[in-house]
Here is the input.
Amino acid sequence: MNRLDAIRGTTPGQDHNARSIAALAANPACDRRAVLDAAAIDKPRLMRRLRFDDRWGQSPFAIQRNQQFTDLVKANGAAHLLRLLRTLLDLPIEEAGYVNLEDAGGNEGHVARHGHTRRIIRQTAEGRGRATILDRPLLRLDVAGAQVYLEPDVIAFQLGGRFHIVAIKSFAIVDDQADTPKVSAAAREAAVYVHALRDLVGRDLVSHDVILVCPRDFTNEPTATTVDVRHQLVTLARQLSRLTRIDTILDRLPERLSLDVDALPAAEIEAAVAAIPARYAPQCLSACELSHLCRREAHDLGHLDALGRVVRDDLGGIESMQTALRVATPGEPVADDQAEIAERLRHVARLYDEAVA
Amino acid sequence: MSLLHSYVKVRARERGRALPRATVRHVHLAEAPMVFVPLRLAGEAAAPLGAMVGTDPARPTLLVVPQPRNRDLRFQFLADLGAVLLPYVDRISRQVETVEAKTPFERCLDAPQIVVPSPGGVEFTAKLGRSSRFRRTTGPYAVDPAVPMLGRWLTFLAEQSEFAGSSLMVAMTELLTAHWVTGQSAVEDGDLAALLGWIDPPEGLTGPEAAALADDPLTPPAGPDTHPEFDRQELQKAIEHYDVTGSAGQVEEALHGQLRPTWDRMWQAIGLLAALKESPGATARWERDRVHVALHRAWIDGGGLPQGKRDSAVAAAKRLARLEAAQQSFEATRAFDDPLVMAEYRADGVAFAGEVVAVDLTRRIVPPGGKREVPRPLVTIETADPVRLSKGKKVRSPSRPRQSATIAELTETTVTVQIDDGMGRGGQPAEGSVPGVGTVICYTELDPGESRRAPLPPREETPWTHGGPPPEYVPTDDDAMEPWS
Here is the structure.
C-alpha cells in the first residue's frame, strides 16, 4: 500500500474531475488541497464528519435541466451534435459512429476502463477517415506525481485523425452572448480534458479549439460555438508544473498521518487536516469544499490573505493582520524591509482618521 | 481598491465592525423606492420562480410561479409583476417639467427607483426584460399587454444601471460596499446578509459573528439563486404538491420563507443609507436620471420600437463613450463631494492636500501660443502626501471646482501650482480668486467635468470597417413567438 492510500485508509476514494483539477491548479501553493486530492479523499464527506454544513450540492432542478439537455444533444447517436458540427462549424461529415466508452465489458475498475478508453482512442486515431464520437472517455492525468483519473463527463470527437473536445453545458447563450464566468469555467475544464487527451494521443492530434454546446436563447435547442483554449492550456500546464511534487509534500508531513474519514474520531481528523499547511484565499470559497474550514483557521491566525489577495498585494510584504496594525502605529518598531510600507501605512492611517473625524 | 481601502479592511476586522468609507451618501434615494427581490429556478436562464416586490416595507407583494416550467404561468408572473411595477413607473414618469435651456428639454419631476439585492438581481432583471419585450399581445402566443411593456421598462432600467452613478436601478450590496468597509473579502461582501451583519449587526453580536450567522445554510440567500438544499428539501416537494393538487399554497409558503428575510434586510439597508446626508453630486445625477426617464417615456409614447437585441456599431461606440464619461465623472464627483473618498486618492498619490505656504500674485507670463502677458500666479502648498503627479499635470481643487491649475514645481514636501483661470478680467487676479497663504487646500488630477470626445458619425454613415450602415432593427414575428423551454 502506498503512502497516499494509507492516508485515505479504508474510506472509499473519490475521482478527480476537470473542475477539481482546475481548482487545484488555481491555487498551486496549497499543500492541503494537493494532498487530499492526490489521496482521493472524499472532501464533502470529510467536511460533514467535521460538522461543517454541506453547501456543495447542486439543485435537483439544475441537475435535471442539465441531464435533459445533455440527453437531448446525445440522443439518436448524437444526431443534434452532428447537425451542429455540420451546419455551424462547416465540418464535412457524411456520417459518424457513436461509441459509449463507459461500458468496458462489465469491468468497472478505473484501470480497466482507462485501458478500454485508450484502446478505442488509439484505434480511432489510426482509423482516421470516418468521424467518430467517443462518449465518456475515462482519461488519466499526472498531477503532482500522482496518477489521477478524470470523471468522464465529456465527448471526444474525431475527424480526419484529429480530436476535438466537446463540452455540453446547460447555461444559455442569449443573443449570441453567454455569462462570462460560466464560459471561462467551461473553458478551463475543457482545457483539462484537452491536456489529458494530448497526453494520450500526442499534442498535434488534439485541437485547441473546444466545441461548446449550449441551449440557444430561452429554448432547449442546442447551439454550438468553438472556444479557443490555448491560453487556458498554457496556464494549466504552467500551474501543473509548479505543483510541488507530492512526495516532497508528503516528506514534510507527520509519518503516521491518516485521514481515514470513516474510521477515525472527528478530533483526530481535524488535527490531521490542520497538520497539512493550507493557503486560503477567498477565491477558495467557490472552488474548494474545505474552504470554510480553512477560512476559519486563516482568520484565527490573522492571515491577511483571508481578506482577499488585493489586500495582501496592497500591503506588500506583510503577512499578518497583527503586523499590519503594528507597523501602522507610530512609534512601534519596524523591520528594515518593512520600513517603506510602514511609512505609507502610517500616512494612510492619519489620512483616514482625519477624514472620519 | 486602494491602499487606504485595504488598510481600513484590516482595521475593520480588528474592530469586528464595518467602518465608514464615505461621509455622505453618493446615491439618490427616491421617496418611495421600489424594492424588488426576484428568485429564479436553478439551471434556467430566465425562469422566474417568485419575487417579493413593493414600496411598503410592511406590505410586500409576493408573486410565485407554482410550476416554473410552465410557460403560461411564467407569463402570468410577468403580467402580475407588470401590474405592480407599471402603475408605479407610469405615475411617476408622466409628471414632466420643461427645462429652459438653449434647446428646452423635458425632465420628469421624479423618477422610478428599483432596488435589487445584488448585481445578480440586475442581470436577472435584464434577462426578464429580454425574454418579454418582444412578445405580442395579439395573434398566436398572445400575452397580457403588460408583459411587453414591462419588458421594455425592465430593459431600460437594467441598461441605465450600467452607467456609473445612475440611481434608477441599483444593487444593494454595491451601494453598501461603496459606503462601508467590512473586515471580510470582496467575495463575501457579495452576500447581503453577511455584509449587513458587518455594518449593522443585531444587538449583542459582533460583525464577524453576525456574518457567520448569515453564512449558515438556514439563512436564505438574497437571490436570484436559491440554496440547492432548499430546492431539494422544500421547493421540489411544494412544486410536486402543486402538480398533484393544483394548489399553490405550499410553493407560496416556501418562497415567502426564502424572500421575507431578504426583504426585511433590504429595508434595513435602505434605512442605513437614508441616515447619511445626500451628496450634491448624487442630486445632480438624479436630475440626469429624470431626463433619461422622460426621454424613454416619450419614445414609448411616440410608438418607438422595443430595444434591439444588439447595438449597431455606432450605437455601441456611443454607448461605450457615454459609459466611460459617466464613470470618470462619477469617480471625480464622488471624491470632490467627500473628503473620505478623496483620502483614497491622496493615499495613492493622485491627489494631495496641505497648507498654502507661499503665493506669487504678481507673476505674469505669455502663455504658449498667446501674444499678451497674462497673470499666472503661483501657489505653493506644503504637503505630507506621497504625490505621484508630474510637472505640467492639470489639476483642480474640490473647494474651487471651476478653476483649473497646472503643476509647476515639485519638491519632497511642497507642490507649486500655477493658477490658469477664474481670476477675472483685470491685469491682476481678482480679490479672493487665488488661494491665500494659510489656506488648507486639496488638488487632484480628477476632473468632474465630462471631457469632450471625438464625434461619432450618424448611423447612415457607419464606415465599411464597421460593416457599413446597419439595417434598422425591426422585431420579427420570430422574436415575438420565440419559444421558451
In short: DSSP finds 14 helices and eight strands in chain A.
